[in-house]
Amino acid sequence: MTAIDLSGVSKAYDGNPVLIGVDLAMEEDEILAIIGPSGVGKTTLLRLASGLERPDSGTVAILGTPLTYVNGRDLPLKRHMAFILQKPVAFKETVSENVAYGLKVRDIDDTEDLVAHALEAVGLAEMGDRMATRLSGGEMQRMAFARATVFEPSILLLDEFTANLDPQNVGVLERAVIAYQRERNATVVIVTHNLFQARRISTRTTLLLGGRLVETGPTERIFEEPEDERTRAFVSGEMVF
Ligand SMILES: Nc1ncnc2c1ncn2[C@@H]1O[C@H](COP(=O)(O)OP(=O)(O)OP(=O)(O)O)[C@@H](O)[C@H]1O
Ligand SMILES: [Mg+2]
Question: Which of 39, 167, 199, 234 is the most buried (most CB within 10 A)?
Answer without folding.
Answer: 234
